[in-house]
Amino acid sequence: SQTIHQWPATLVQPVGSPLSLECTVEGTSNPNLYWYRQAAGRGLQLLFYSVGIGQISSEVPQNLSASRPQDRQFILSSKKLLLSDSGFYLCAWSFFGAFVGMNTEAFFGQGTRLTVV
Amino acid sequence: GQNIDQPTEMTATEGAIVQINCTYQTSGFNGLFWYQQHAGEAPTFLSYNVLDGLEEKGRFSSFLSRSKGYSYLLLKELQMKDSASYLCAVRDGNAGNMLTFGGGTRLMVKP
Question: How many CB atoms lie under 10 A from the CB of residue A99?
Fold first, then answer.
């Protein structure tokens, strides 16, 4: 069976400090990988998604970046955090290249609650 | 890309039925998903539609009309524990099956 691990669960960081959130998936190969952010009381905002190693698409311009150094590893980074980066960050994966009708729901990690102070 | 719209908030009474609508625009539609998310937790999968019609799973049903770019989630016999956000998500087959989520509908169930 497949599992997804995301850490840390909570993080408090000062403004201007760097950030590194890590997500790994087990039990599958070549997954689609996603980073979402959710502000309090809001929906999920897609930040980055990846369909393969080294392939990153950015949906929202910001001071965050993502990398996929290995097939099942997805990293969200920032060189200098802003107050507005506070939120709930979720990593997710889904099967790649599904044919029509195949249920390829996204499976979420438990999330990281980031507070920038 | 996709444009997904759903109401921000809804209120309903315990035991009643509520319908949460979702409209979307996408170039490579390859499925629509509904997720439930309780505050502070990750979303959990509820239902999936790729063909027109109604899919029923217990108290929850989801409907899709691809020609209208429209879906709804129907919750019957509402319980207090159904108070949560409900997220509509569309999969784009032209973009590696990327999932894009709507802003979510926060449902409050009152006694």
Answer: 9
Three-class DSSP labels, chain A:
CCEEEEECCEEEECCCCCEEEEEEEECCCCCEEEEEEECCCCCCEEEEEEEECCEEEECCCCCEEEEEEECCEEEEEECCCCHHHCEEEEEEEECCCCCCCCCCCCEECCCEEEEEC
Distance from CA of A49 to the nearest CA of B (A): 7
Quote the pLDDT of residue A97.
58
Assign B81 to helix, strand or coil: helix
Residue written as tokens 């509509």?
A: B88
**pLDDT (tens digit, 9 = 90+) per residue, A5-16?**
999 999 999 999
User: Does residue B26 carry a pLDDT above 70?
Assistant: yes
Q: Does residue A100 sit at the B interface (CB-CB below 8 Å)?
A: yes
Q: In this model, does residue A70 exceed pLDDT 90? A: yes
Using one digit for the tens of pLDDT, what is the confidence trace for A34-53? 999 988 777 788 899 888 89
- Does any CB of chain B come closer than 8 Å to the CB of residue A7? no
